[in-house]
Design brief:
- With 199 residues, the chain is mainly β.
- It has one helix at 2-20, and strands at residues 24-33, 38-39, 45-48, 51-61, 66-82, 89-105, 111-126, 140-154, 159-171, 185-198.
- It starts with a helix and ends with a strand.
- The protein contains one helix and ten strands, in the order αββββββββββ.
- It is elongated, with a radius of gyration of 22 Å.
- It has one domain (23-198): Beta Barrel (Porin).
- β2 (38-39) and β3 form a beta hairpin.
Length: 199
């Protein structure tokens, strides 16, 4: 009888311990969006305004150091094009990211540095308002790669603060305008800071 009770207590303890182990987290971050100046084919010059955006991420821990992450990012900025025919074309654009990444992290007391690498798509959609001075634009999608690194600081067993740098490599958008095609890839820099909830 005592052995049965002891076995039951051990199994219950193991179940409670497993239930308290945080294998998943959800984070909400503010991001900065910084694109480079691109000089492309046929003397096309493309620039984009800096902007603020939002990033929502979900992580599932495979092991204490390895995780899979899904991301959704949203921002708005202005893409500017200069060609010999259109010296001052401006497109107010919505930028959305859908990506998946592998995350490797280390633990040093309350600090957890991490690095990530993955793939995803970036969707650029023109917004027809006063920020756009060109008609007939279309949405542009690009498959690309994601790489980043950062550090998380544990506030409590359930919450941490994350600071990270993320770079997304994708073909520069042309919004369906062949004369805006740079035929170049750009790295969009996206530093982020936010809060993660572990469950």
């Amino acid at each position: 009888m005592k052995n049965t009770m002891l076995l039951g207590v051990l199994m219950l303890s193991a179940a409670v311990g497993y239930g308290q182990e945080s294998r998943q987290d959800l984070s909400f971050s503010g991001t900065g969006i910084f694109g480079p100046t691109i000089h492309g084919a046929a003397n096309v010059k493309q620039t984009s305004t800096d902007a603020l955006g939002l990033l929502l991420s979900y992580r599932y821990m495979l092991t204490p150091r390895s995780a899979l992450e899904l991301n959704y990012g949203f921002a708005q900025n202005s893409q500017k094009y200069a060609t010999s025919f259109e010296p001052n074309a401006r497109i107010h654009a919505r930028q959305q990211e859908l990506s998946a990444a592998y995350v490797y992290s280390l633990n040093f007391k309350r600090f957890s540095p991490f690095a990530e690498i993955g793939v995803g798509t970036m969707v650029f959609t023109s917004i027809l308002d006063q920020g756009t001075n060109l008609l007939g634009t279309k949405g542009t999608k690009g498959i690309g790669g994601l790489a980043g690194a950062g550090v998380a600081y544990e506030l409590s067993p359930s919450f941490d603060i994350r600071v990270e740098y993320r770079g997304f490599l994708v073909k520069a958008p042309n919004f369906g305008q062949s004369n805006f095609s740079t035929n170049r890839y750009e790295v969009i820099s996206m530093p982020a800071i936010g809060v993660a909830y572990h469950f």
